[in-house]
Amino acid sequence: MSPPPPTEGTAPLERLAHLRDTYGALPRVQRELVIFGLALLFGLIVMPFLIWYAGSRVLGPYLHGQNAHAGPFALVADFFLGLVHGSAVFWAVALGPAVILLLIRLRAPHLGQYIHSAMASAARVAPWAASRQARSRSSP
After folding, report:
1. Model pTM greater than 0.70?
2. Distant-in-sequence, close-in-space partners of 99: CB < 8 Å, separation ≥ 6
């Protein structure tokens, strides 16, 4: 039986635990689609802002025509305009996180099992670390 849905008064950690349980109950195909969708959203929404931030720190302000103070939203508008026009460079940026995630998963298909076994061996080598982690989870 699944836990009840979170309410407004629920602590953030309980809401995260509920999300984790809900995500874990999804079939594998739906979980993979959720991960791919999040990577795609990251490429479409977050990457243009990261590019603007890095570019403004290294290259200087983003110039949009004659506007010397265009800012990040001018870059985002140009980014989506490039996507609409079908520019391969803009699509590479948008699909980059999903492609990188796909390549990592193809290269290491059992990465989750490796992480789990590494955590288990760390608990055997340093049992105090596992107890400390359990205490930090249970403390308010």
Report:
1. no
2. none
